[in-house]
Records
---
Amino acid sequence: MAGLLKLNVFLFFVLTGFFTTGLFYLAYTYTSTSHRYKERGFCLIVPKEHQENSLLQSPHGLSYNQPSVVGPDGKVVPLTPWLAPVVWEGTFDPTLIDSIYKQQNITIATTVFALGKYTQFLKDFLESAEQNYFVGLRVHYYVFTDHPEQVPAVKLSEEHHLTVLTVPSSNRWQEITLSRMARLEELIESRLVNEADYVFSLDVDTKFYGRWGAETLGRLVGVIHPGYYQTPREQYPYERRPESQAFIPSDEGDYYYGGAVIGGLVKDVHEIAKTCREQLDIDASKSIEAAWQEESHLNKYFLYNKPSKVLSPEYLWQDFKPHTDEVKIIRFSQVIKNYAAVRPNP
Ligand SMILES: *[C@@H]1O[C@H](CO)[C@@H](O)[C@H](O)[C@H]1NC(C)=O
């Protein structure tokens, strides 16, 4: 009888033991799972850090070969040496890439500067953009002009909007060019941070001849200038005077980027505009004007802050340039203009 009681007590403790262990186990699993969820939640906040890591900054004075745009076999090169895509016809599917970005419900702000006689280019620019530029995606044009009454009434598609921003006139085209960065910086701070996801700043004396869609979107986007894509870098028209903030030594350089196209996320384009405006101000205080004004400063910026996407010369041509084998499609091109007729000074 006493033996049976002992056995019962023993069993009681064993079972209670199992039960408590079970409870501890459950409690442990529960906390560790919720921990894991918490950790996931934390990961969602991390992208800021990730974005900072994704800045592609490179040191000054680094020695490496100049990247080629066209290979020895005559084929175009679709990647930069820092593995950013170079966008050429055939490297993307237009339907697929537009559908992906359409789902993100993004707005692409597009700034153009049409001062003085440059308003004459607005009609062709806007009409051809409406046929080719981010068709089906949301676009907001911001037209800077000193002649708001000369902005043509162009019929815009449903998703496209236009705002005219009046600015004072200027007597020197160099000054107009130089103030563009400052105006872009201000516009981003005052409006685009709330109104857009991406920004493109485009030259107005241009025309679209082909599709320009979501394949051009990226964090930081530059275009290879059509005049220099097969030029040795020591012959690029970079600013070569060390006194200028735009100075690039003769043994450095990737591509010669065209100043007619600057693009990227609002925050990243703001950084370009702010940096270039500061460098332009320093130069101005020393009475130095870089060889190609803002284009020179942009080239310096892109050399040490690599674009995350590079547009091939399909995205910036010049109407007077004959077609070449490697450029299969001309999408955007500078129109032929009579400088004397459009510039306020020589
Ligand atoms: C898409 O974006 C627009 C403009 O930013 C906004 O008005 C609209 O509500 C958004 N639609 C969806 C489904 O999020």
---
Amino acid sequence: MMEPSHLGLVLALDSQNAGDVECNSFKHGSIWVMRITVLGCSGSVSGPNSPASGYLIQADDTPPLVLDLGGGVLGALQRYIDPGDATLLLSHLHADHCLDIPGLLVWRRYHPNPPKGRAIAYGPTDTALRIGAASSEIGGHIDDISDVLDVRVWEDGESVQFGGVQVHPRRVYHPPESYGFRMTGPDGQVLAVSGDTGVCDAVLDLADGADVFLCEASWTHAPDRPVGVHLSGTEAGMLARKASVGTLLLTHIPPWTSRDEVLAEAKAEFDGPVFAVSPDDAFEIARTPTRENPVSSA
Ligand SMILES: [Zn+2]
Ligand SMILES: [Zn+2]
């Protein structure tokens, strides 16, 4: 059963003021903070009120991490950081997760004060080819993006350290090469991210005991839904319950899916805090106290 105090450990910042958040130092008292800001959360396509998928993860002594860069996310990102400072983490190469990257290439190449050096970009095997094709100005040509991006490839189960944040990628159950992540922050706090996936053991492993679980919920639990592509609200809630996460954040709800129905489905399965995220929501990830491992309030 969830303790009521879990809710207080996740701070949903006022979205009107989210752009004013002080981002230089994240140490609050004796706790090193990790924060996720929603840049875009519309599932599968951009929506009337949200870009497609994109999230900003910030922590002390850590470069700004941008998880996915779907349509419209580059614009939203400019409200928070200089896009030239971003390190990219790509879950997979469906268009709704990566097609603002050609815009980032333009930013890095042609901005009057261009960023120095290359940005690190982790993604699936074909990242350089796929983004190079999208960025090319000639059909059949691949733009060589190595002048501005240092593209690196995820290895299933091999963690990568970005400053104070360790990112552990796992292959998940989605048509192309796709990854979910377990991100461990400077204070040991854990943010699990499903990526786009159907129900699979890997996403359950990623979420195991996580303080916050950002989980896709692309459709309702209709009997005719496809297998191995996305999760229903019921499945997202079931995963959160089985993994005993602290807080469940639902995302990747497409414009054609009822947000209220998906949220109700998840709440019927998981009795901890559940939110359906919106653009500019920001959540601080803090270690969840348990009876066995209480966190001091000192
Ligand atoms: Zn998607
Ligand atoms: Zn996808």
